[in-house]
Specification:
Two copies of one chain form a homodimer.
Chain A (H helix, E strand, L loop, with lengths): L1 E4 L4 H12 L12 H4 L6 E5 L2 E10 L6 E9 L8 H15 L4 E6 L4 H9 L3 E2 L4 E3 L2 E3 L11 E6 L2
Parallel strand pairs in A: 4-5
Antiparallel strand pairs in A: 1-2, 2-3, 3-4, 5-9, 6-9, 7-8
Chain lengths: 157, 157
């Protein structure tokens, strides 16, 4: 398996797959093409035998020169439990290290239990929000009305 | 009227207004909170007597060090025809000049005739797509199936 940087044309392969990889949740609208055009040096594709099996879209904060943000990560369900996610995160961590960043942020929906477990396993801490859902601290209405979010942060290096 | 940089908390004032400012089109989901957190130095608010009357969210490309991108611009309909949009664009152009960028890109939906007219008036060129709609060149399925887009580009400096 190969990890490489995202290129713009990957959008047209990945976008139609996203909802399927997310168990039918409408997720592709969270990932317009701009994310494949402007953050290529901190975004990565996992490819096996020429087929895209996972990807990570991340970028450097312009506002805080210590911080980087992971917007979206997904792995083809048929290729899970193979450390593909870990390799994508590590590629991202390496890319931000080159840019002298040592704080990584990410958010997820409280409903996405797998993501919460995964980020915790990867060493992310959960920030203290204003409510608790199933024992996890959550920021209510963080991304709009009824759009609660779990906020992750990890210090790298 | 005052133009200032965006801050994170502006999201909670602006997000509930967006669909209303866009004649009821569902647009707020194109603007998650991350756009108010990570690109503050190239994103701007227009305020009159302490009330937000317009905003521009833009960022620097990480992939191409000449390029900057305008993601979203909106002005309260009650405050249009007052050059607020122009002042927001000019604030953005100044901010990217400081970062040695001289190419600005933006996209819009073909249905948004006002945006097409406005960008043309502001000196943006329309890139040649694969189809034409009402005399305007368009990239079909650019942002996903049935998500056609008009692509704008402007050289500044």
């Amino acid at each position: 398996m190969e990890i490489r940087n995202v290129k713009s044309s990957d959008y047209y392969i990945i976008s139609p797959l996203i909802n399927e990889w997310w168990d039918g949740r409408e997720m592709s609208n969270k990932l317009p093409k701009l994310f494949f055009d402007y953050f290529n040096n901190t975004s990565f594709i996992a490819e096996k035998d020429g087929e895209i099996v996972g990807f990570l879209i991340g970028f450097l904060s312009q506002s805080d020169t210590n911080v980087a943000y992971i917007h979206f990560v997904s792995v083809n369900p048929e290729f899970r439990k193979k450390q593909i996610g870990r390799r994508l995160y590590n590629a991202f961590f390496n890319s931000i290290k080159k840019n002298n960043r040592n704080v990584v942020r990410a958010v997820t929906s409280p409903v996405n239990k797998a993501s919460i477990v995964y980020h915790t396993k990867m060493g992310f801490n959960i920030e203290k929000g204003d409510i608790e859902i199933d024992g996890v601290s959550v920021f209510s209405d963080y991304d709009g009305i009824n759009q609660d979010r779990v906020l992750f942060v990890k210090k790298t290096n």
